[in-house]
Amino acid sequence: MYIIGITGGTGSGKSSAVQALKALSAHALDCDMIYHDLLLHCDDMKAELENRFDDILTDNIVDRRKLSEIVWNDPQALQELNVITHKYVVSEIDNRINTLKGQGVSIVVIDAIALIESGQGEKCDVIVGVVAPEEKRVSRIMNRDKLPKEQAQMRINAQQPESFYKNNCDYMLENTYDTQAEFKEKCNIFFKELLRKTNLKYCKEEILYEYE
Hints:
Blueprint: E1 2-7, H1 14-23, E2 27-30, H2 31-41, H3 43-52, E3 57-58, E4 61-62, H4 64-72, H5 75-102, E5 107-111, E6 126-131, H6 134-145, H7 149-157, H8 162-168, E7 171-174, H9 180-197, E8 200-203, E9 208-211
Parallel strand pairs: 1-5, 1-6, 2-5, 6-7
Antiparallel strand pairs: 3-4, 8-9
């Protein structure tokens, strides 16, 4: 199994990079989606969160808006949230990777903003960072999440700077494009070449990659 890590800040275009890999038959594991699923179904994680962040549970359901308002305004609270949640997400990712290995899946993508900080980058064969100009990220977050500019900027400020990804990733993809389609095409070309260099052979008829 070949594991590709995709990371970058919110609004950078990570989802477009992941979609390009999925089109090349890779199986994607979205850590954000897994985290939200755990918020609904993992009682142990919810209990830890309630113990640290008072009054965020209503009928055993985490009030995500209330939790977000707490951590986006408090770097220490955000760090403590990550300490609690990362271990559960990492454990779930490990379980899913083991299942996929048993199914014979040859390429897996781990999509995570905190891929490196959580330690998940260590299980990746290669890490690709996705970055974009700050003004474009602000605009994308505002349009995607229906947020005012101040809140979009606050989310960016709470995350790692571009230099962090340049220092910790094997490759970088810069998303300066105005449309998602343009960036996806760039990603498609890049990932085909990356997989070619890593001795993975693309078979159009079968739509899969195999080790040569």
